[in-house]
Design goal:
Blueprint (H helix, E strand, L loop, with lengths): L5 H19 L5 E7 L9 E10 L3 E9 L4 E3 L5 E5 L6 E8 L9 E7 L6 E7 L4
Antiparallel strand pairs: 1-2, 2-6, 3-5, 3-7, 4-6, 7-8
């Protein structure tokens, strides 16, 4: 069977379909809105943070890491693994604790997405500032 052209001729249309499909695939677009319940807080007191996500298309696997600066901590699961459907707007809450006195910019997160095809994935680092 090796060295014969027939298996290659049979597989060529499928390989072409795979190459065209992967080249037309767009990375998933995930939008986020970040909100804090208080702009200022006393050391040791909690601050509620809300992260609302949305997607235009199905995101089968979204790996989300909320990056906290040194001096802030949370007991919420971090990173999180989610599945987003179009029109869904899951709200993730984080109870942040100020462990050290100071000024902090929060709202940075890293995400990694996978679409239906296991071959297609993307990752990015984003910043959502409080509104």
């Amino acid at each position: 069977m090796l060295g014969r052209p027939e298996p290659a001729a049979l597989a060529a249309p499928f390989a072409l379909l795979l190459v065209v499909g992967l080249s037309l695939a767009e990375p998933p677009r995930v939008g986020a809105l970040f909100e804090l319940d208080a702009e200022r807080q006393v050391e040791g007191e909690p601050v509620e943070a809300l992260l609302e996500l949305r997607a235009e298309h199905v995101v089968h696997r979204l790996e989300l890491l909320f990056e906290l600066p040194h001096g802030l901590a949370t007991d919420a699961p971090n990173p999180r693994l989610l599945r987003l459907l179009p029109g869904d707007r899951p709200e993730l809450t984080y109870a942040l604790r100020c462990e050290r006195w100071g000024a902090y910019l929060v709202g940075d997160f890293c995400s990694g997405c996978r679409t239906a095809s296991a071959c297609s994935s993307s990752s990015r680092s984003s910043s959502c500032r409080s509104r």
